[in-house]
Every structure is written in C-alpha cells, then in structure tokens.
Amino acid sequence: MVWGWYISGAAHGVLLVILLVGGVFARPPEAPVSVADVEILSEAEFAALVLRNPAPEVAEEPSAPLPPAPEEAPEAPEPDSPLPQITESPAPEAEAPAPSPEVTIPTPTPEAEVDDTPPVVAAPDPLPEGPRFEAPPQRAPRVAPTPAPAPPDTAEIAPDTAPAIAPAPDAPPVETVEETPETAPEEAAPELATEADEPTESLALATSPRPQARPSRPVPQPEAPATATATAEPAAPATDDAVAAALADDTPRGDPGPPLTGAERDNLRVAVRDCWNVGSLSTAAKETIVTVFVALDRNGRPDIASIRLLGFQNGTEATAARAFEAARRAIIRCGSRGFPLPVEKYEQWREIEMTFNLDGVSF
Amino acid sequence: MRLFLILLTLLAALPALAQTREGPLRIEINRGVIEPLPFAISPFVAENAGAAQWADQITRVVAADLAGTGLFREIGGDAFISQVSDFNAPIRYADWRAINAEALITGAVRLDGNRVTVKFRLYDVFADAPLGDGLQFAGDTTGWRRMAHKVADQVYARITGEGGYFDSRVVFVSETGPKDNRLKRLAIMDYDGANTQFLTDASAIVLAPRISPTGDRVLYTSYETGFPQIFELNVGASTRRPLGVQGDTMTFAPRYGPDGRTVIYSLTEGGNTDIYRLDTATGARSRLTSAPSIETAPSFSPDGAQIVFESDRSGTQQLYIMPATGGEPRRISFGQGRYGTPVWSPRGDLIAFTKQNQGRFHIGVMRTDGSDERLLTASFLDEGPTWSPNGRVIMFTRETAGEGGQPALFSVDISGRNLRRVPVAGAASDPAWSPLLP
Fold it and tell me: B368 in contact with A at a CB cutoff of 8 Å?
C-alpha cells in the first residue's frame, strides 16, 4: 500500500518536473516582424490622390452600346461635275377653305445646282426574280435552280471484275489474309492514356438485369397465294426495299426501360440550345414556335434525313421555314458528336420531338 | 369518401401512366444563343477574262453587306479547305462543315462588253442542301454595286426570313465648314456610304430631307428665303417646287404619306404651330390639329390610317397618335424626359423617337401603344431616326460635343446591337432612308 503511494508520488513528481523544465508553458518565440518605411501624407495630399482617380459613376440610364472608335472625318468630296440648274415649278394651287394669301414663289435666289449625273443609279436592266427569271436584255446563261449533287464523302472505286479461277483439285489450301481497308487515323484525344489508365476487366455487370419483355403473341402468317410464285413480278424499285426495311424496323422494341430523369432531359436541352443560334432570325421567325422530329442512333447522333418539321405556331409558313432551318442546324451541329444520353435508355430517346419556343423574346 | 380515395389513387398513378407513354420523347427548348451566323463566301468565279475585276469587287461588297448587319460573321478565305473554281461543280459540304460555316455563298460573274451578269447560289451547309434556287442579275457595269447589293439582299432574306435593305439609298444633309458657319447641302448615297452625289449647292441652309415612297422625289426644308419653307425636289428631272406656301408662314418637318401623294407638315402662323395635310396633286390642304401648343414632326403609319407626332400640349414634349384625317390625339409616351421626331416603322409595329433626358440624348423604340420602350443609344446628341426599308435598322445623326464637334451618321440594330458609323465623307446629318430600289 505504502509502495503505491511512493510510486504515485514519484510519477507525479516526474510529471511536474517535465512540465516545468520541458518548456510546455514557455512563451513561443515571436515571429520576425517585417518593418517597412512609410510616408505620412497630409490631408490635402490624400485628397489630391483620390481626386485623380474618381470612382466610376453609376449610369442611371440603360448602358448604351459603345460607339465605334472616333474616326477622323475626311473632308466632303467636291462634286465631280458642275451642278446643273434646278428649274422651278409652280406650287400646286391650294384649295384650302380659308382664303389663303397669294402664293409667292421666292425670287430665284442663287440658283441651286445639282450634279450633272442623275443621282439615282441607273438600274440594271430588268432584274430577274427568282427562278422565274425574265430573260435579260442580253442573253445570260440561266442559273440552274438546283446545283449538281454533292459527291459522296467516301467514294470507292469498284475493282475490275476478273474471271473466277477455279482452284486445282489437288492444290494445297491457300491461306487468305483478309485485308482491311485503310481508314483515317483515330481522332487524337486531349489527354494521353497510359497503360495504367486502361480499365481493367470487371466482373460486375454493366447494366442491371431487367425482366424480359413478355413475348409477343405469335401472329398467324397469312398463306401466300399460290399464284404469287407463278407470276413473274417486275423487279421492285429500291424505294420499295427501303419502305420494306422501314416497316421491318417496326418490330416490337421490348422494354423501353425507365424514363429519362429530369437531369438527363436537361442535359439534352442544354446540348441543343447551345447550338440554337437565333441571332440571324427575323423577329417574326423568332416568335414562331416550331416542333421538329428527329431520330437518333444509339450514339445519340441525329439521322439528318429524319429531321422534319411537325408543326408550327405564331407564324407563317415562311417564318416557320426559317425557324425550322435554325432548329435543324442546331440539332445537326450539336448532335454531330452525339447528344449526352444514356445508352441503356435508348428506346426512350430514339425518336424525339423538340419544340423550339423562345419565351419572352421582345422585338 | 370511397370516391375521393379512388380519385386520389388515380391522381397518384398519373405520373406513372405518363412515364409509360408511347411515342417519341418530347422536350421543349426555350432558350437559344444569339451569335452572328458564320458564313463563307467563295470568291465569285470570273467566267471570262474581263470579269475578274468585277467578280472580286462584287464578292467583297456582298460579304461587307452581310457582315455589316451584325447578324452574320464572315469566315476568312484562309480557313477554306476547298475552293469553288466552277460555279456548277458539286459542293463538298464536309469541307465547309469542318470550318463551321453554316451558310456558303458561291457565285460567278461574266462580262460581255459593257454588261455584267452575276449569278449566285446559297447553301445550308449543315443540311447538305441549297437554300433556295440559284439567281442571276444582269446590268450595266456602272450598276455593279447594285447587283452586289441585290445578291446580298437575297441571301439576307433567305436566312433571316425578312427582306433585306442593302439595295437602297439615303438622302442626307452634307455639312462643311465651322460649327458657327456651317454650309449645308442635300446629298444622296448608297446605304453604305458609297456613291455620294450632291443634289443642291450650299447657298442656303437645308434641313430634314424626306424621300418619297417611290424614291424619285425628296421633300426638304430650305432657308433660302430667310424663313423655313418646304420644297419638293424631283431627283431624276432636277426640278423643284415649293409646297404648302401660305403667306408669311413657316413650313417645315414635311413627310410623305404611303401613297406618295399626300404630304403632312408643320405650319407656324401667328406664333402657333400645327400639323397640316396637303394633296400634292390637287393642292388641297387641310388642318389636322388646332391646339395652342406646338404640334410638329408628323409621321404616317405604313397603312396611312394614323399619324404620330410630337406635341407639348401636356407641358412637356411628348408623342401622340391621331387619325390621319385629324381628331383627338392619344398620348403614347409617358416616360421621363422629352420625346420628339417620332417615325413609324415600315413594319408598323414600332415607333422610333429621339429622347432627351438628364442632359443626354437617346434613340429609342416603343410599340405603337407606348409599351416596351427601349433606348438603343445614348450620347451627347443623337437625333433624327430613320428606318431601313425592312424595319430592322435605324440610322440617325450623332453629333460630338465641343467647338470642333461634328455630326455624323450612325446606324444601330433595333435590338441595340451593332452600332456603327456610316462611312460618309465629311460631316453629315438628317438621314432619310429610301425604300428598296426596284
């Protein structure tokens, strides 16, 4: 028991010594103070300094656009030719009910002179309008209303056909190496991707499994009429094939998945509006609300051929056409790299109706 | 209670029903960007040896017209990937898309003797398609600038959806000499300041020219008799005649009606200024106002049914509208300051005016009922607005302060953007914009 007191007393003593000697309560060394020379200003000197840089005034009126830099106004040119005389015509007789005093034409004061050449520029011969151009006085080649079709971006020349050579029956099999056509180099990325950046294979599922859609009820296939094969049909045009392909695409699409979230819709909205340039539209075209249909591929890129005007409000066909052109440019420009849309919800956004409506635009 | 619960359940299920809707996704875009539309103009092809000079000049005027509106931005030729050396060659849209050109203009010029033929096409690059049909203009070499303006007008109209204003002229007062002894004479020029020609000499002070709807006559006020008097100048025939003369009265501030035959103006008699209407064909005159205040600066509405004018009948200078045959006027300006020189827009939807408030002058626009007033400019002295033929641009006089202050012509878009000085040689004031030339 006594030993316990001794040990406790010794420990406390050691602790007190450490606290007193170890400098725990010592004042921390003061940081060096930097000293700078100052100059004392009088009140008058201070006022003079402040007045030299007055505070900007707050404009009460709406700030006007800055005028262009003042230019040195050149002297007015002298007329090239002596000014011809102006002939005076009598003033029209007044038929006012009140008796008007005599109309006195001022005495011909120094006769005004005008330029020799008539100021109205001689208009070119009847200017043709639109495609229904009137023939100009001298025959000029008519402008074809539509230009030549653009060449395809990537045109391949078909190799000359060569007669097929039948291999010898006992010839050894020849290994054929499939040649891949040269393609454009991949687009450069803004960042270097090293091996460490390459994603490792993950065993996790890319998407959560979803229940399969209910299988569609089998549709009884109508029997082809026996005469269909017997009669030789003329070759269907390519457009028929395209229509058939389009109809074939109308197969059940399965579960469209969850709808787009508000944030995903906003992303799309922002992506389109960043390219919707209305600066060059007339006031009437800006006020025209147009609804545009567009089909997208899985990468979010618009199918240009699918873009069409569904309808418009608050305008004429002409203003709707201009508004539609601006909307189409917005979709194509900002969709060229694909709109930011979740690919797992492709069925939700493969077809979009965009309504372009400038709210609150005045003149 | 049960019915209420059923309705509540249905309401709660509505969002789920909406989510499972069929058909395309529907979104609404409510905001866009306002930027100049980038366009490329390929140097017009000279189809024969003599046309090279004209092709180059016409190309530059078309590009300047479009870029000068502030609605378009020209992409320099240095950026071009491909060149158009044949007017009829197919367009490689990908090359123009790559430089972000949204519109492409191609053209060709041919010179046959003294006759120039200009043809052009406009393409929507991102739609891979032409915008409208090809067009051509033919005329004398002296009218090459007009043909260039007409090409630009067509391009402007096809892209914006409203008519252009490049093939038009402006009558103005050309000024020379010091501020206290200024010599003034009437002049006419292209809208862009080119081709200036004088209509009168500097023997008398002339003011406020107004051009007729047909563009062949000009009304103006002259001080050649010592007091203001209205004259009508026939531009083509170089003849003139006084209008509205009535004894020892002063007549000023004339303006044509939309029919080109009716003129409204101010007449001061016995210290009182009122507005009169004159049929220039018959000389029939009628008084439209009879208030003891000053009524002046009348301007017809495009349909000729109404007249906007300024009056101080309320104690300060304000804007009023009355029927074209006279009648009780209706005040439309109620803001602070003084309003004057109202001009009705060719489209009929806006009225431009000069406003003086707190020592500064402004050019502004408001709707015809006085709403949506917007001030477009602010300076020491801005006054005398005139509308472009399509109602999109306003030209006006801006005078700088001080003894050396000079008036100059400026233009501004009705949105308040694209304030520019019109490159007129010498000092200039009082512009009057003509309609589009035929």
Answer: no
At the top level of CATH, the class of B169-433 is mainly beta
CB contact under 8 A, A147 and B134: yes
According to the model, what pLDDT value does residue B5 have? 56
Contact B88 A147 (CB under 8 A): yes
Q: pLDDT tens, A115-146?
A: 333 333 333 443 333 333 233 333 344 566 66
Cβ within 8 Å, pair A355-B27: yes
Chain A interface test: which of B19, B85, B123, B126 (most A C-beta within 10 Å):
B126
Q: Which residue shows structure tokens 């094969």? A: A229
Cα(B353)–Cα(B383) distance, integer angstroms: 8
User: What is the spatial distance between Cα A14 and Cα A21, in angstroms, rounded to a whole number?
Assistant: 10
3-state secondary structure B191-260: CCCCCCEECCCCCCCEEEEEECCCCCEEEEEECCCCCCEEEEEECCCCEEEEECCCCCCEEEEEEECCCC
B400 shares contact with chain A (CB less than 8 Å):
yes
Which residues, 6 or more positions from B60, have their beta carbon under 8 angstroms from its beta carbon? none
List Cα–Cα distances, B359 to A70, B179, B381, B409, B429, in angstroms.
21, 21, 9, 21, 20
Q: By percentage, how much of chain A surpasses pLDDT 70?
A: 34
Tell me which of B71-75, B114-118, B234-238, B355-359 is least confident.
B234-238
Q: Which two tokens stand for residue B364?
A: 């502004």
Residue of B238, B280, B388 best to disrupt the A interface, most CBs of A under 10 A: B238
Taking an 8 Å cut-off on Cβ atoms, the answer to whether A68 and B420 are in contact is: yes
Q: Indicate the fold that domain B37-160 takes in CATH.
A: Rossmann fold (3.40.50)
pLDDT mean over B292-312: 96
| Residue from the list A104, A124, A351 with its beta carbon closest to the beta carbon of B146 | A124
List the single range of A208-222, A295-309, B161-175, B362-376 with lowest mean pLDDT.
Answer: A208-222
Contacts of A323 in chain B (CB under 8 A): 161
Specify which residues B286 forms β-bridges with: B277
Q: What is the token pair recorded at A358? A: 């400038």
CATH number, domain A262-356 = 3.30.1150
Does A178 or B105 have the greater pLDDT score?
Answer: B105
What does the alpha-carbon distance between residue B273 and residue B311 come to, in Å, rounded to a whole number?
10
Structure tokens at A208: 């959560």
For residues B362 and A59, give the distance between their C-alpha atoms in angstroms, rounded to a whole number: 14
As a whole number of angstroms, the distance between CA B408 and CA B172 comes to 10
Element (H, E) at A332: helix A317-335
Q: In chain B, which residue's Cα lies nearest the Cα of A75?
A: B426
Structure tokens at B373: 């007033």
Query: Which pTM value belongs to this model?
Result: 0.68
* Structural domain spans, chain B: 37-160, 169-433
Please tell me if residue B292 touches chain A, with a CB cutoff of 8 Å.
no
Q: How confident is the model at residue B219 (pLDDT cuts 50, 70, 90)?
A: very high
Q: Which residue in A147, A141, A120 sits closest to B118, CA to CA?
A: A141
- ipTM value greater than 0.90: no
Q: A86 contacts in B (CB within 8 Å)?
A: 200, 233, 238-240
Under 8 Å between Cβ of B188 and B176: no
Q: Which residues pair with B356 in a beta bridge?
A: B338, B361
